[in-house]
Design brief:
mainly alpha; single chain; Ribonuclease iii, N-terminal Endonuclease Domain, Chain A; about 10% strand; about 60% helix; three-stranded antiparallel sheet; Double Stranded RNA Binding Domain
Amino acid sequence: MNIFVKFKQYLLDRTESVSLLEKKINYIFHNKDYLRQAFTHKSLDTTPRGNYERLEFLGDAVLDIIVSRELMREFPEGDEGLLTQKRAALVQKPFLASIGYLLDLMDHLKIEKSVDLTIQKISEKQSANLLESLIGSMYLDGGIEPCRRLILDTVWAHKEEAWKATNYKGKLIEYCHSTDLESPVFMVKDISGPEHERTFEISVKIGSKNFSSGMGTNKKTAEQTAAELALEELGATY
């Protein structure tokens, strides 16, 4: 195969890849250079306009604006603390990485081969970065409306999953400190089941008050459940 045939095949493969991505996000780019930049890692192009870092910076800001607006609609009586906590869960890197995986964004990443994407931490970081850079590129190419549609169809559509991952134990400790309550004490109330299938029951005590127990297949999960129940019983916003 001569060099011209190889180059033609490369262009066909690249066009097909971009078209599949555009179809998945339901947006056709007017300027394909934005899309190319959004998936180019710094290891391949160190110039500011050649890799995705600037677009990631912009996409992060666009994501914050759109998520914040939707949260104000979702919680019309919610205070700043509640809205901030809800937004933090939706824009955290692990959650954004999961959305990036759903969209198969890693399939389009252009990166130096020496970068080991089999390492989970590295892969998750790239997936999250690509989602933000994609949002940034869409904003430059078509304004905020296509970004809003993409975020509503992905990040917002899976919001409950992100909120379930909230660190309720940490929130309970913060709440107690902010309201001058004693720090919560977590105690193992019971461990049942066979060795390979344990069930933990954790109780929470704050001062002299005992709260409902939480159950889980491990101690950490049971503590989180117990903390969530305590927050609800306290009427705390989290």
